[in-house]
Amino acid sequence: MIDANTFKRAVKDWIRSNPDGTIENLRDFCEEQIPSSEFTANTWIVEQTLSWYGHILSHRDHVEGSDSAGDDKDELVPTVEPRRASGTVW
Fold first, then answer.
1. Contact predicate 33/43, CB 8 Å
2. pTM (2 decimals)?
3. For all residues of the chain together, what is the average pLDDT?
């Protein structure tokens, strides 16, 4: 079984290293992290990761596309992180 925490750290490192990465790029990366013998049992973590990243990208597009007066594009915007059914926070 894969270590979910190691997987999450690897994904976060990938996002930092690939700020213009697409969902397809991330899918490829995630699938490479899971041994083929364990892939079927762990497709949920790939799908959850892609959903989470899709939210990040849509939020990023929304923030970058904002033209309101007084917007500070360098200001950090808090995000809500999804939870697994067990309550583990990404």
1. no
2. 0.66
3. 82
